[in-house]
């Protein structure tokens, strides 16, 4: 080798060494071509799965009391017991009453903000992606033979803390029919027999599309997937089961880098017709925009390049998107027999505790500022600035810091839709009342909190 060739080789070696020694640059884009074979990825992730899930279980147990302890005499619409009690754990020796009289700075500096009030990470935050509760997986396998099992992850929250399954479905156009799902999970196998003669043809087509599986980041035909076999994909109603929610979780596709992405718990589609903002932080202005956005980008973590590679479904706006949106806008809230036409309690039907809770909701507790009747939303976004109470920290791969503005979700039917807040960090309505009591500084008494929960359960 001559001197010139030796110099070129040393320069090349130095460049490689520099590249290897540098930390990988953060980027908004995902790799298009993966260097690891699918079989190797699956074997590696299967081996890591137990440790990943144990880490998440340890986090949940450190934050919450996960026991199955239903509230006495309170059920969801189809009869599933509603879980009761505050589940968020406090520091030893601290009470909620002591915490409520502290200033945000005192809580911040003393690191006394309850861990269960901090943002909740995804079961594997660095990996992310759609994760489904086992009851949804089992029923879809039974009806369609389609398997939403991930080889790398399981769902993390216990079933008793999730919405009832299958949830009832109510239509604004046919309130006389009650639950039009007839107690079944609506799928491609049964939707036509259930809805023929109830919906018009355009609405039936919209429902069919909402039940049609399309490729998604973790469930698709390529080797970049998290299912053992090549997969037809995920349907809108896999997460929004029967137009409601089943607890399925994901990471919002809007934010980078990965550790700043927010976990999202699937919200109910009930009452879409009265909503004017869509997405917990996106503030999309129509359900048509949201439907198209999900298919074109959100299914693929906001990356249209990988969407094309995996087979994204470019819905036609004038017919397909419109039909899907039309059906979604028929989904109604469950009956609330104690509410009058103004969305408030009928004094002849409500208990004394519920009426006291309503007075608190419209008064001292300040809930009505964001949640106005009859549907208990203001169709706006609000920044609670919860970061006043805690120091930025890393939690299982999530950077817990400011959440920013969050959409005001409707409270109608709220007892049927746990867990709460956009990321599901609050497991019960009692947790939710404690959270807002602290964040808003309204200083409710123990009895007032009980009454407020009693009111919320009647919405």
Main attributes of the structure:
459 residues; Cytochrome Bc1 Complex, Chain D, domain 2; two-stranded antiparallel ribbon; 5% strand; globular; disordered N terminus
Describe this structure in words.
The chain contains 14 helices and 8 strands. With 459 residues, the chain is mostly helical. It folds into 2 domains: 90-119 and 345-459, Cytochrome c-like domain (Cytochrome Bc1 Complex, Chain D, domain 2, Orthogonal Bundle); 128-335, no CATH class. The strands form 4 sheets. Strands 1-2 form a two-stranded antiparallel ribbon. Helix 9 packs across helix 11 and helix 12 (352-361) packs across helix 14. The longest helix has 26 residues, at 38-63. The chain is globular and about 60 Å long. The chain starts with a helix and ends with a helix. Residues 1-21 have low confidence and may be disordered.
How many strands, what sense, and barrel or not for the largest sheet? 2 strands, antiparallel
Number of helices: 14
What is the mean predicted local confidence, pLDDT?
93
Tell me the Rg in angstroms.
24 Å
Question: What's this model, at a glance?
Answer:
Helices cover 32% and strands 5% of the residues.
List the helices and strands and how they pair.
Layout: H1 3-21, H2 38-63, E1 70-75, E2 81-83, H3 96-100, H4 104-110, H5 134-144, H6 191-195, H7 201-210, H8 236-239, E3 249-251, E4 263-265, H9 287-296, H10 304-310, H11 317-328, H12 352-361, E5 381-382, E6 393-395, E7 398-400, E8 406-407, H13 429-440, H14 446-456
Antiparallel strand pairs: 1-2, 3-4, 5-8, 6-7
